[in-house]
Amino acid sequence: MRTVTARDLACLDEVVVSIFRLIGNHRKLKVMFGASSFVKGYFYDTDRPGVQFNFPRSNQINCCQIVLNRQTDEYCLVFLDVKDSQFFERGNYQNLPLANVRSVFEEVTGLYLSF
């Protein structure tokens, strides 16, 4: 495992901004459907920056990870059901272009990101 560098952190911030530009900022998500516990970081390894947040249960899903694969410039959406510190994967969508992230999120959760 390699050390996270200043360049990695700058990349992480850029990725987070791109994701929130598409799906709405964290304040909007809080107001629209009660999203909470926002976390930005590297998931799985340092080539996969992204965000994770929780929301009230929707279709047995209450947590979402949106992660960029920097090598392919495609995103992964992982939908989880978190209960008592246990994580149950309810959906995993790989190799999505950024433009498709919003529609997949809305389709899977039933929560709409726009009026």
UniProtKB/TrEMBL annotation:
The lineage of its organism: Bacteria, Bacillati, Cyanobacteriota, Cyanophyceae, Gomontiellales. This is Uncharacterized protein.
